[in-house]
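Postdoc handover notes: sequence design on the structure in folder B. Input tokens:
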């Protein structure tokens, strides 16, 4: 197999790839890069997770004229999350070149900030169809000098109804350009698009084997209501007792809020998102790698490329928008030959995203539901009941937030979600007296508390993802470490065992 330099990538870019731990091209990279460096159009049929982002980014970056600050490459992606992920990869490649600028353009972002960056000059623009079209209509994005066009996840753009917007954008581009189309499938609409807007494209089709071993990851969809999410999450954590877990949220605000709720409920957690300073991010990552944290609450972009040994569980608290995001999220577990468990929380309103994920990964995900007895297989009747509850919640105007009952009314309505569950932990039973709908300490002990009582069986229920590591710990060691840690610290009402105790519990590492 050829290396990147043999494919035509310049040595300085190969060095950057080596520093990122990337030495061997994937099949789609090996077949696409020489074609793209030669200037030909390409239609690449490749599944998500096969390394196609680098397949088009490397040839583009190598061909950019840094002395010209106008947009020279346009990359169109169906979702904000995917646009941000591509942008993050491009910025990692160009971090040492202060003359090469990359900009993400998507909805929900400060338009004025985008305008300033466009005015200052950027050679690579990565965006979603709607916001790109908005800038074109405003006259704030000039595409006269674009020489490279990428349509990534083209089939998703078709399914999401963006094809008309995409064609409008294509008509604004110079006729003389190189077009790259990447798609997991090739439906008729995409074939017609290629026929109308591409010149003698090279067809590249690679096997669907992903560079992320999702076949080693047990995947489940937990069907729930918005308001039931937080209780279900706590129940899953207490049941499976992960050694290390990453919980994904859609926004920085939701990640911060969920982390706050988890910490108040007694879990060792911290947050990772774009608002953190570099030093704070590094401190959080060090604590997580050293297993001083059990749970990391993160956004997609912050966790992109995150590689931590020992992550046994991934929880998609907010469902990802597309298969690309899904694969990169769950790929944080099941590393180095280990196994892992990925649980995606889904309400009835998440069905379109769930359908895209299942289509993009070519699999049907197992449905489960959370009960007081633990996770059980989902049934049609139970699903209808959940949907009915979800509709009642929404029609009643209650906001789900991240807990089962939110803090909106001065915390008085919080009966089960966060501190409300602490009445039986650490002698704080008096806290429940002023909370409407609160359960007594005995009721709580009989409910979710029962799921915590069988520590020995719970330790075995976790995904022993570290089993393949030479320095891995046994199930008993894990049970005496994090398995005991979560329960002990909540029972004591404190922040977990002393640091010396945690160090003792980790000496087997």
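Designed sequence:
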């Amino acid at each position: 197999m050829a290396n990147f330099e043999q494919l035509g990538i310049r040595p300085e870019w190969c060095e950057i790839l080596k520093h990122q731990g990337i030495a061997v091209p994937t099949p789609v990279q090996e077949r696409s890069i020489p074609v793209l460096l030669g200037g030909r159009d390409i239609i690449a049929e490749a599944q998500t997770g096969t390394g196609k982002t680098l397949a088009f980014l490397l040839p583009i970056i190598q061909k950019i004229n840094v002395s010209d600050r106008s947009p020279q490459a346009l990359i169109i992606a169906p979702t904000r999350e995917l646009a941000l992920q591509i942008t993050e990869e491009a910025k990692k490649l160009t971090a040492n070149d202060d003359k090469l600028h990359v900009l993400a353009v998507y909805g929900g972002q400060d338009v004025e900030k985008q305008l300033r960056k466009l005015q200052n000059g950027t050679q690579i623009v990565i965006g979603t169809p709607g916001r790109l079209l908005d800038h074109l209509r405003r006259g704030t994005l000039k595409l006269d000098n674009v020489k490279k066009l990428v349509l990534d996840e083209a089939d998703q753009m078709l399914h999401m109804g963006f094809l008309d917007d995409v064609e409008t954008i294509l008509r604004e581009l110079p006729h003389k350009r190189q077009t790259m189309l990447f798609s997991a499938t090739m439906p008729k609409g995409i074939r017609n698009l290629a026929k109308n807007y591409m010149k003698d494209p090279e067809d590249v089709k690679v096997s669907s084997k992903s560079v992320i071993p999702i076949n080693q990851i047990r995947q489940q969809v937990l069907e729930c209501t918005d308001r039931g999410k937080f209780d279900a999450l706590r129940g899953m954590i207490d049941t499976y007792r992960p050694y290390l877990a990453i919980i994904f949220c859609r926004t920085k605000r939701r990640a911060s809020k969920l982390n706050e709720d988890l910490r108040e409920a007694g879990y060792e957690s911290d947050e990772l998102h774009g608002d953190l300073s570099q030093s704070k991010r590094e401190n959080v990552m060090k604590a997580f790698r050293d297993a001083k944290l059990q749970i990391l609450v993160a956004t997609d972009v912050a966790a992109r490329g995150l590689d931590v040994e020992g992550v046994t569980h991934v929880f998609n608290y907010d469902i990802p928008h597309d298969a690309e995001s899904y694969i990169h999220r769950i790929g944080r577990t099941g590393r180095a030959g280990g196994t892992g468990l990925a649980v995606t929380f889904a309400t009835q309103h998440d069905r379109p995203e769930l359908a895209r994920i299942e289509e993009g990964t070519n699999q049907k995900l197992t449905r489960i539901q959370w009960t007081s007895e633990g996770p059980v297989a989902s049934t049609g009747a139970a699903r209808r009941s959940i949907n009915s509850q979800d509709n009642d919640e929404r029609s009643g105007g209650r906001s789900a937030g991240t807990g089962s009952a939110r803090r909106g009314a001065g915390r008085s309505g919080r009966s089960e979600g966060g501190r409300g569950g602490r009445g039986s932990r650490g002698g704080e039973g008096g806290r429940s007296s002023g909370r409407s709908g609160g359960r007594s300490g005995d009721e709580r002990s009989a409910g979710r508390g029962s799921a915590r009582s069988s520590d020995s069986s719970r330790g075995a229920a976790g995904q022993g993802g570290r089993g393949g590591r030479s320095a891995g710990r046994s199930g008993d060691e894990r049970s005496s470490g994090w398995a005991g840690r979560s329960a002990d610290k909540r029972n004591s009402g404190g922040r977990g065992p002393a640091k010396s105790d945690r160090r003792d519990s980790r000496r087997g590492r």
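Context for whoever picks this up: Residues 4-205 form a domain with the Rossmann fold fold (CATH 3.40.50.300). Don't rerun without checking with the PI first.
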